[in-house]
Design goal:
By secondary structure, this protein is of the alpha/beta class. It is 43% helix and 19% strand. The chain contains five helices and six strands. Strands 1, 2, 3, 4, 5 and 6 form a six-stranded mixed sheet that branches. The radius of gyration is 14 Å and the shape is globular. The chain starts with 11 loop residues before the first strand and ends with a helix. The mean pLDDT is 94.
C-alpha cells in the first residue's frame, strides 16, 4: 500500500500554528471540517485525544501518526500537517514533532487502519530525509509530491 494516493490537497496543512498537543489536534480537526472532509470535528478531536492519552503516537525522527476510527468515515482519510516550530508530542527521543500523518478510518474496516499505519511506518523507516523534505514543501501539492517521490524510491 502507498500513502500518497490517499492524500489530497484538502488534507494537507503546510503551516500549523498550535504549540501544544491538544490545540494542534483541534487545529487539524477544524481544518478538515472547514475543507468539508469531515462533518464532526468535535467527535474527531475527542477520539484523537483519547488515543493520545493511551500513549503518544509520536514515533521519533520528528514524526507523529495521530489516528482514530470515526463512524462517519467510509473511505480512509489520510492527511499530513507540518509544524515548522515543532510541538512536544511525547516522543521517545524527546525531540519536537514537526510532521503529523493523520489517519482516520471506519471502525468497520480495522485492517485498513493497520495497513495505512504500516505503510507510513515503512516510509518513515526508509527515508532519512522525509521530514526535511516535507518541511521544505511550500504548498500541499509539493508535500504530496515529496511523499510520492520518497515512496517511489522504495520500489527501485
Amino acid at each position: 500500500m502507498k500513502v500518497y494516493p490517499l492524500l489530497t490537497e484538502a488534507t494537507v496543512i503546510v503551516d500549523l500554528q498550535s504549540r501544544e498537543r491538544d490545540a494542534l489536534l483541534e487545529e487539524m480537526a477544524l481544518f478538515l471540517k472547514e475543507k468539508e472532509v469531515i462533518r464532526q470535528d468535535k467527535e474527531l478531536l475527542e477520539k484523537l485525544i483519547q488515543r493520545e492519552n493511551l500513549g503518544s503516537t509520536a514515533i521519533g525522527k520528528g514524526i507523529s501518526i495521530p489516528h482514530c476510527k470515526l463512524k462517519e468515515v467510509k473511505n480512509a482519510i489520510v492527511g499530513v500537517a507540518v509544524s515548522r516550530k515543532g510541538v512536544d508530542f511525547g516522543s521517545s527521543d524527546r525531540k519536537p514533532t514537526h510532521v503529523f500523518f493523520l489517519v482516520i478510518t471506519s471502525p468497520e474496516n480495522p485492517s485498513l487502519n493497520l495497513q495505512i499505519l504500516a505503510a507510513i511506518a515503512q516510509l518513515v523507516r526508509n527515508s532519512a530525509s522525509l521530514v526535511r523534505k516535507i518541511m521544505g514543501a511550500k504548498n500541499p501539492r509539493k508535500v504530496i509530491d515529496v511523499i510520492r517521490e520518497e515512496e517511489e524510491k522504495l520500489n527501485e
